[in-house]
């Protein structure tokens, strides 16, 4: 819709324009989208059957909203998407600091302008993207920041008394009049500052200093909070929480597929990187599984949560790790390897809060442990569970099932070992994997159509999987990469080293 060509109050009256409150706008536009079978939150994945219906009910009820959830659960993203439910253009009185409605001005400036010019009062049109305000709650936020205060410089320049309403400087909330205003991390706001919001939420007005001032503000308030904040940094004062009509609980993605879709949508990967680096689905699954493992790890503080930013950052780092290797080897195209996952460790250590046991273990060790658990969990979705062959028999009369992994285990048991360096070129990498007896045939048994590159990835994945099931040994190499060997031999060497 183009901006209307209406420039005066008289023209606006003739146009038949009927003003609506912000919440009525949102309600009307939401109903229209629902009737058209469209979602106002199409970019939000994983909330279709949980959070979004709660939000729609709250908006239809014309409620202010509190999103309660751990970090990285798209709370602010949900609030920003609500802008699309506003009317595209609304008329405001030209020069107004608080977006005065021409039919219901609330500021002294707007009221005086209409008294002076009447139907010739100039009108401007405001786009919905300018009707959104956001403030991160921090301990230093003041009432003046949010509500407003007397501006002594303004009073001096205009030769006004401090008792004159024109000497007021409006805070960010009045400037969000006729729009959406979001306060992120509400518990971080000092209790006395939270108290200043009581009147705005209940009566829709503000009070500044000792002025007998009533501004009936028209705002949809959205607040976000992390449950951790209730104990670590502060709390939402009870009367304020009572005034927020709908409290909506958010959550992390419930399935790997949803998590993959979110990461794919949010990761910032350049087109040139996509041409140079191919990321198989196996590697995408592993990234998401790392986050899943972290969200139930005894080393990670579950009250803090594990943000979806971990998988997004990890995916970007994984692509860059493979890209760097390709540049060093003068490759035009490469496939991500399991050894490339060493490059995502900084994305893990910087995104998780460790409990005491985790701190004792060390962030680096915890990151590699999470990667190992992810490999172990994912392995059985691609290959048979090695533990099923350890049991030997399905029942008392059946013969032991032959293990497809036994030739590989025997190869290492015969004194052989394998070193896979992270920066090896693709030819050397593949040729090294083919040296392991029985490895290629084991992979082909379950992936007969895999090409050479993908077969190489699966071969390396099988080695890492067998190591996580303690059937072969695996060690990190200082210059980057992994060394695989016989499990029993490694244990004996460790014993000798201890002696």
- Strand content is 5-15%
Q: What structural class results from the helix and strand content?
A: alpha/beta
Number of domains in the coordinates?
Answer: 3
CATH homologous superfamily of the largest domain - what is it?
Answer: P-loop containing nucleotide triphosphate hydrolases
Radius of gyration: 31 Å
Q: How many E-type strands?
A: 14
CA(first)-CA(last) distance? 80 Å
The backbone outline, from C-alpha atoms, is elongated
Biggest sheet, spatial arrangement of strands: 4-7-8-1-9
The name of the CATH architecture of the largest domain is: 3-Layer(aba) Sandwich
Calculate the mean pLDDT score and round it: 88
Instruction: State the CATH topology of the largest domain.
Output: Rossmann fold
- Secondary structure tally, helices: 24
- Relative helix content: 40-55%
CATH class division of the largest domain: Alpha Beta
Biggest sheet, open or closed, and with what strands and sense? 5 strands, parallel
The unreliable regions are: 494-499
